[in-house]
Amino acid sequence: MADWAPVLVGVVLFVLLQPGLLFSFPGNGKQLEFSSMKTNGKAIFIHTLIFFALYAILILAVHLHIFTG
Fold it and tell me: Which letter does DSSP use for residue 13 in this model?
């Protein structure tokens, strides 16, 4: 039995938290931009911190597990 939760959570969070896809915080012109498809270094850093925090909470604190087989 393999635990697929870290892989699936990582992929879903990576897709949803791409700067510029759904939102970009901080944006290029405003503090928060939606679907701008543009990014900057600050937004990449902030989205990386948000990704790490959510990933750690879901995997380590909540003990999320998805077993197959």
Answer: H
Amino acid at 9: V
Long-range pairs, 6-13, Cβ under 8 A, ≥24: 6/59, 8/66, 9/55, 9/58, 9/59, 9/64, 10/55, 13/51, 13/54, 13/55
- Nearest CA-CA partner of 6 in 68, 60, 69: 60
Instruction: State the DSSP code for 2.
Output: E
Instruction: Return the SS3 of 27.
Output: coil
Tell me the per-residue pLDDT of 11-69, one tens digit each, with 9 for 90 and over.
999 999 998 888 888 878 888 888 888 888 888 899 999 999 999 999 999 998 888 87
Determine whether 50 is exposed, middle or buried from the number of CB atoms within 10 Å of its CB (0-12, 13-18, 19+). Answer: middle
